[in-house]
Amino acid sequence: MNQDVHRHDWSPLRYQALGGANTHTLQAGDHAPDPGGTPHILANSSIRRSTPRECERLQGMPEDYTLIPWRGKPASECPDGPRYKAIGNSKAVTVVRWIGQRILQQL
C-alpha cells in the first residue's frame, strides 16, 4: 500500500508500507517562486536566469537558432520571451535524432 508523505519543504514522498525506502516523487516543473518556470543557474552565490543561447545548447540546437524576425522586427531585435517559449515547446534534437534512427532501423 503506497501513501503520500509531505516533508517540511512540501516535496511529496512515497513509501511502501511494507518497509520500502523513501523516494522522491517525480514531478514536472520547478517549484521556484518564479511563476514562469524559467531555468536558473547558481553563479557566484547568486541565482541568474539561463540565457536563450544556453537553453538552445541544452536542447542541442545551433546557437541563436530561435533568434528570428518577430512581429515585423528584425531578428536582432527578437525579445527573449518568444525565444524561451520556442525552446520550451521544442524537443531535444539529440533525442529526436535517436528516435528517428531507431524507427529507420525497423523499416
TrEMBL record:
<dbReference type="GO" id="GO:0032259">
    <property type="term" value="P:methylation"/>
</dbReference>
<dbReference type="InterPro" id="IPR001525">
    <property type="entry name" value="C5_MeTfrase"/>
</dbReference>
<feature type="region of interest" description="Disordered">
    <location>
        <begin position="21"/>
        <end position="51"/>
    </location>
</feature>
<dbReference type="GO" id="GO:0003886">
    <property type="term" value="F:DNA (cytosine-5-)-methyltransferase activity"/>
</dbReference>
<keyword id="KW-0808">Transferase</keyword>
<dbReference type="GO" id="GO:0009307">
    <property type="term" value="P:DNA restriction-modification system"/>
</dbReference>
<dbReference type="InterPro" id="IPR029063">
    <property type="entry name" value="SAM-dependent_MTases_sf"/>
</dbReference>
<protein>
    <submittedName>
        <fullName>DNA-cytosine methyltransferase</fullName>
    </submittedName>
</protein>
<keyword id="KW-0489">Methyltransferase</keyword>
<dbReference type="Pfam" id="PF00145">
    <property type="entry name" value="DNA_methylase"/>
</dbReference>
<keyword id="KW-0680">Restriction system</keyword>
